[in-house]
Amino acid sequence: MDKILRIKMGADAGPQVKEEPLGGYAGLGGRAMTSAIVAKEVPPLCHPLGADNKLVIAPGLLSGTTAAMSGRLSVGCKSPLTGGIKEANAGGQAAQVLARLGYAAIVLEGKPKDDTLYKILINKDGVTVTADNSLRMLGNYDLVDKMKSEFSDKVACISIGTAGEMKMAAASIAVTDMEQRPTRHAGRGGVGAVMGSKGVKVIVLDDAGMKMRPPKDPEKFKEANQAWVAGLRKHPVTGEGLPAYGTNVLTNVINEAGAYPTKNFMWGRFDGCSKISGETQAETENARGGKGSATHGCHRGCIIRCSGTYTDKDGHFLTKQPEYETVWAHGGNCGIDDLDAIAMLDRLDDDFGVDTIEMGAAIAVAMEAGIAKFGDAAAAIDLVKQVGKGTPLGRILGNGAAVTGRVFGVERVPVVKGQSMPAYDPRGVQGIGVTYATTTQGADHTAGYAVTANILGVGGSVNPLKPEGQIELSRNLQIATAAIDSTGMCLFIAFAILDQPDTFQALLDLLGSFGGQKLTGDDVVALGKSILKMEREFNKNAGFTKEMDRLPDYFKKEKLPPHDVTFMVKDADLDQVFNW
Ligand code: SF4
């Protein structure tokens, strides 16, 4: 990873490829790399779909090595959804392959002069950019099949579906998994629309002939990796809960806690919860003869293996095992308790290339507006199909919950900075409310997952229904997360490193022995803070004010059953999150 690949999509004679040394970006990976490039090179006031925005794709610091869990890929730009800086990340194979090909980042710059669509092939021989309008309006599944038959069934693809081509603000970027299926997505913030605006349909990565990235201190690295794997295996969440049921293990947990946003955040419990829980999902998958949820990673080197395969009633592959957020977004949040319908919605979202969280939130807002009834799965499927086709209603929904609420005159729209809230009601988990309000990314649970100490008893314990202790909790998690997002590590490692000091030390040793230096916890904190500082500065220059670090007003007024609580963290306290 000693070079950056820049492709000027708007060059006079067609896309122009340039490779350059890392320069001032040396030593950065993942979110640190994407945010540094966006903060330095993208004018904060530019239009997100214009020539001045850049799409930055970066593997993590440890991607392409033998370190377990290191396959996360970061995508950064100015977001069409929030208008601020964006880092969305995804699992799948691409980060490992891109890192082994030697690239610390791909930067797509400028804008083509016409609407020609391009595919980009990167392999050991270099980079080829080819115009290919036969790819127009293909869904991600057909697109990837085409790439496999054209190149090989071992390539990894980074692609957009129809939503990205139509530049919808909920459009995602798909990354292929170990089975070459486009099931892993950099979902949030409309990164797919930015790729669409650059005229790039797919980036095909082929690392045939390339080697694993070698650590500076191989012995120490091997030792650290063994301790790392052992630590992840011994923690109950990363060693048992996630491998057994996937992320959807949370449905029962969050519902029981009374923080499961139901029917557009009206209630904290869903009466159809048991029908869509992780336990029911795993039973259904196993009974149908699918691979089940126990043994499936989204990229090679994942040892937590939270993913699985969801087959239809006839035992045919339908989609990957839908994640908790997806099951909630299309399930409880829309009043739908039918796992098959939710799996179909997940498949459609992946194929069209839209963020499942934003789509579920937009549909629930549309349901509140009376466009469809809560609980009507067939109507929800029809709405997502309209997004894929780009009908006028589909284009409204495909631009997210905030646009949908504005168009249909809905007051109760659960967004921060234009981005929809995920699957935890901030009144029932006040710490996650602080993260939603203040993160640089718009409402995003992964930016500082306070559910850990609020609900799961991981990394301490803070009462989820009270404001006390939430600022500090969210602050520390936001700092740690920004750093983890730079390593290439899947965020689920956080459960083990928060609880087990020896596992955190193993991560430090992995990073240190790879780069040939000694790292401490303070270095990690400093890295996290520096990323947040860059991102906050970008947002400030894009016009963000502290008044935008707030939840929608109704969360402070409307009590959430069953605990009958409002969001109680004071505005003045929210303003202290980044005051370290
Ligand atoms: S734990 Fe889950 S999300 Fe993380 S790398 Fe493994 S399969 Fe992917």
Report on the structure:
This protein is of the alpha+beta class. It contains 24 helices and 16 strands. Strands 2-1-6-3-4-5 form a six-stranded mixed beta sheet. Strand 10 and strand 11 form a beta hairpin. Helix 12 packs parallel to helix 14. The longest helix has 21 residues, at 521-541. It is globular, with a radius of gyration of 22 Å. The two termini are 33 Å apart. The model has no long low-confidence stretch (mean pLDDT 96). Bound molecules: iron/sulfur cluster.
Secondary structure layout:
Elements: E1 3-8, E2 16-21, H1 30-41, E3 55-59, E4 73-78, E5 85-90, H2 94-100, E6 103-109, E7 118-123, E8 126-131, H3 140-150, E9 156-159, H4 162-165, E10 173-175, E11 184-186, H5 191-197, E12 200-205, H6 218-234, H7 236-245, H8 250-256, H9 273-276, H10 278-287, E13 309-311, E14 317-320, H11 324-330, H12 339-352, H13 356-368, H14 377-389, H15 392-397, H16 401-408, E15 415-416, E16 419-420, H17 430-438, H18 451-456, H19 470-487, H20 494-499, H21 501-515, H22 521-541, H23 554-557, H24 571-574
Parallel strand pairs: 1-6, 7-12
Antiparallel strand pairs: 1-2, 3-4, 3-6, 4-5, 7-8, 9-10, 9-12, 10-11, 13-14, 15-16
Helix pairs in contact: 1-19, 1-22, 6-21, 11-13, 12-14, 13-16, 17-19, 19-22
The site of iron/sulfur cluster (SF4) has 12 residues, from loops.
